[in-house]
Specification:
Length: 297
């Protein structure tokens, strides 16, 4: 039976053998996503080979998406692997990427003190922890913990109120895109694009492979029309987008992005926490079924 709606599955440690990949193709995987935020080139080459072999055995066409990391900012490390940040406490934010503690958070962003202003929010660990910047000095930014929690090594850090000067395409991305050409990937998913120009730059480096623009930044949503002009597909990346924008607005924003993508004749993809409970359960929840239906219809 032909399905207009396709299933994208990410390949990772849980399916790191040929038999598992073959089973996924047999079960209906239409697109295999290789996440270049993790793993090395040898691992991704192996995954791609398993996908091609399984697709041939099953007589199916299975596309491979190379999802490049982009300028994802992450905190450094901590002596015990994590620290607890208590609401109301003060912390120092450092541009370095070294080791921190409960008083100093290394943000791994060299232009931190230039790009972030007093009053701006800093969001850690995919939205679990929120800080508010109070002051900037020559070495660090001082912030108050508004919403506390446990912060582990290398968790993500986002600056939703700040326009960052970070490059959209990193040196790692350039190396990965060169490698992707050797795999013959069908699509490249571009992370943290801000506008159509960013999409065009990725396409240039990918030798005109079709681009999936991931909408993860508030700035990308504001520039959606220019991105739609340049990308072949749009992905609503709800994880990072839900950090950038108020969570209660996310359903409306998702529907708006999907509607505008369809009107422009672009492929539209909804990602993050899709059927999340099925990691543990063989059946989705009723809420998840509704979530899938909203993404499709």
């Amino acid at each position: 039976m032909y399905r207009h709606t396709k299933i994208i599955a990410t390949l990772g440690p849980a399916v790191a053998d040929a038999e598992s990949v073959d089973a996924m193709v047999g079960a209906g995987m239409d697109v295999a996503r290789l996440n270049f935020s993790h793993g090395d080139h040898d691992l991704h080459r192996t995954f791609a080979g398993w996908v091609r072999d399984a697709a041939k055995r099953h007589g199916k066409s299975v596309a491979i998406v190379q999802d490049i990391q982009g300028p994802k900012l992450r905190v450094g490390t901590f002596p015990e692997g994590q620290v607890h940040l208590s609401a109301g406490s003060a912390v120092e934010l450092s541009p370095s990427s070294g080791e921190g503690n409960e008083n100093v958070i290394p943000c791994g962003y060299a232009s931190l003190l230039d790009d972030v202003q007093p009053g701006a929010r800093v969001v850690l660990a995919d939205g679990l922890i929120t800080l508010k910047v109070h002051s900037i000095d020559s070495d660090t930014a001082t912030a108050e913990v508004v919403q506390g929690g446990e912060l582990s090594d290398h968790k993500g850090v986002a600056f939703p109120d700040s326009e960052l000067s970070v490059e959209t395409i990193t040196e790692k991305d350039e190396r990965d895109l060169e490698f992707g050409k050797t795999l013959g990937v069908e699509y490249v998913a571009a992370s943290f694009v801000r506008n159509g120009e960013d999409v065009s730059r990725v396409r240039e480096l990918a030798d005109d492979v079709p681009i999936i623009a991931k909408i993860e930044l508030a700035q990308a949503y504001e520039n959606l029309d220019s991105i739609l002009d340049q990308a072949e597909a749009i992905m609503v990346a709800r994880g990072d987008l839900g950090v950038q924008l108020p969570l209660q607005r996310l359903p409306l924003i998702q529907n708006d992005i999907l509607k505008r993508s369809n009107a422009a004749g672009r492929i539209s993809i909804t990602a993050t926490e899709m059927l999340e409970s099925m990691i543990q359960s063989p059946r989705p929840t009723r809420a998840e079924v509704t979530d899938v239906a909203n993404a499709v219809f």
